[in-house]
Amino acid sequence: MLTVTRSYRPAHGPSEVSFLLDDAASPAPRQGQHVLAGVDRGGQEATLWAVGDAGVAAERARINGTAPGSAPAPCDEP
Question: Phi and psi at residue 64, in whole multiples of 5°?
Answer without folding.
Answer: -85, -5
